[in-house]
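Dear colleague,

Thank you for sharing your sequence with our group. We've completed the structure prediction you requested, and as agreed, I am returning the results in plain text so they can be pasted directly into your records. Please verify that the sequence below matches your submission; if there's any discrepancy, let me know and we will rerun it promptly.
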Amino acid sequence: MFSGSWRRAAVVLTVAGVLGCSPEKPAQNAIAAAEEALAAASVDAQTYAADAYVMATTKIAEAKQALEQQDYKLATASAGEATTAIEGFAAAIETKKAELGEMWTELSGEMPGAVAAIDARIEELSKMRRLPAGMTKATLDGAKASTAELRTMWGEAVAAFDGGNLMEAVMKGSTCKDKALEVKGALVME
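Please find the predicted structure tokens below.
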């Protein structure tokens, strides 16, 4: 009879050991999985899905705090919520990248032509003996300086795109587009 009890105890201990009897282990594993997923997605997430990234990091922090307080159920739940948020990054990131890609395609199609048109207008105005009504030499000189600045800014936008920073490229490209419109207005271009 003693040997049967011993066997039952051995089986219970073996099962407990296999299952990781400690309720802490599943919570630790859930937190580790969430942190690993966050690390893998963090660069794009911080850039393209900042709100979701902040929420996921907050949930991981909550999970760690709950683990320290030995609230394993809350720790596991918070880590699960973080993982769910991280999984949602993929769709948000792809959507944002697609939007930015479309914006960049539009900008890169417009800007070279806009700069060429501005250059042509500046050249045309520079050859005139008399500038059109409402335009002064100072306005023309200002447009020339702004166009040089515009070229530099556009070069930075292209460099950002070539470097893989689509967000920065679109931001700089949009600034260039605004600057080009400003210069065109000063040069009385349609």
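Summary note from our side: Residues 15 and 54 are 39 Å apart (CA to CA).

Kind regards,
the structure core
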